[in-house]
Amino acid sequence: MTGFGDATAVERVEDGRYKADLDGGFAIGEALNGGYLMAVLARAAMDASPHAHPVSTAANFHRVAKAGPAQVFVEPRKEGRTAASALVTLVQDDRPTVDALIVTGTLDSAAEPGYAGDRPTGLPPLDDCTEFLPPSGSRGFADQVDMRFDRTTMGWLDGRPSGRPEVRAWFRLRDGHEPDACSLALAVDALPPVALNLGAQGWAPTVELTWHMRAVPAPGWLALHGTGRLLADGWFDEEVEVWDSAGRLVAQSRQLARVPRA
Questions:
Q1: Alpha-carbon distance 74 to 78, whole Å?
Q2: C-alpha span between 144 and 25 (Å, rounded)
Q3: Coil, strand, or helix at residue 58?
Q4: Which residues are CB-contacts of 108 (< 8 A; sequence separation ≥ 6)?
Q5: What tens digit of pLDDT does each residue of 49-71 get?
Q6: C-alpha to C-alpha distances, 230 to 3, 187, 198, 239, nearest whole angstrom
Q7: pLDDT tens digits for 179-231?
Q8: Where are the domains of the chain?
Q9: What would the pLDDT profile of 122-133 be if each residue is shown by its tens digit?
Q10: Pick from 32, 95, 108, 248: most CB atoms within 10 A?
Q11: Across residues 106-129, what is the average pLDDT?
Q12: pLDDT at 136 (0 to 100)
């Protein structure tokens, strides 16, 4: 099993152009997870920036990315003392697969929040949650991430969706890679679609996802809280908050996706 660092590595070919070998271990079916792709883009953006963290990412997903070679192009838009922005594009088979406007900045790991809202409720202690174990011999997303789910938000697995667009889980990488900027990009898109608890079935392709890195995460498990507000006319939204082991909000996201079809 390839480690997350190696799986998201990029190699600079020249200024503004990188090559990557996309890892099929982060696929669900044949499609690579969108959070994994954002982590690859974040690595290129950070390498090309004077700043250390992807504080804001707005990604548009144009088509399915698959395992294998790809290129990443970084086009700077602005560079300042506290932030820099760039358009970062993942290209595979000579076609743009993902475009992302990424703003980088440098976060202070010791910074204390001036204000922090209440942590979402409902996620039981780790030992009271359910682990999903992939079938023996399989290789895919569930082999790479260790997730422990709140059972009350997983009724859709047994044909009993809760009727509430929410999923909650604990999250970490199985290879021991501690939380960092790139693993936060993965975490915000790691939950099953909240639309499954509204009776939808199947794969839900993300069209646009915006996420913000709010703090440098502490080592240990991350708590994921996913919710939604509206499912209508073949579209639904999903919001995710990521809290670290120190009880801090470290990432938040919102995405627009197509309603799953069996």
A1: 12
A2: 7
A3: strand
A4: 216
A5: 999 999 999 999 999 999 999 99
A6: 36, 22, 10, 11
A7: 999 999 999 999 999 999 999 988 899 999 999 999 999 999 999 999 999 99
A8: 4-106+126-258
A9: 999 999 999 977
A10: 32
A11: 93
A12: 59
Cα separation, 111 vs 126, whole angstroms: 27
Q: Is 71 helix (H, G, I), strand (E, B) or coil?
A: strand
85 contacts 77 by C-beta, under 8 angstroms: yes
Average per-residue pLDDT in the chain? 94
Cα(260)–Cα(245) distance, rounded to whole angstroms?
A: 32
Topology of the domain covering 4-106+126-258? Porin (2.40.160)
Q: Give the tokens for residue 95.
A: 């076609």
Tokens of 173: 């990488």
Return all residues near 152 (Cβ < 8 A) that are at least 6 apart. Answer: 122, 162
Convert 141-175 to b/e letters by CB count within 10 Å (16 or more is b).
bbbbbbbbbbeebbebeeeebbeebbbbbbbbbeb
Q: State the pTM of this model.
A: 0.95
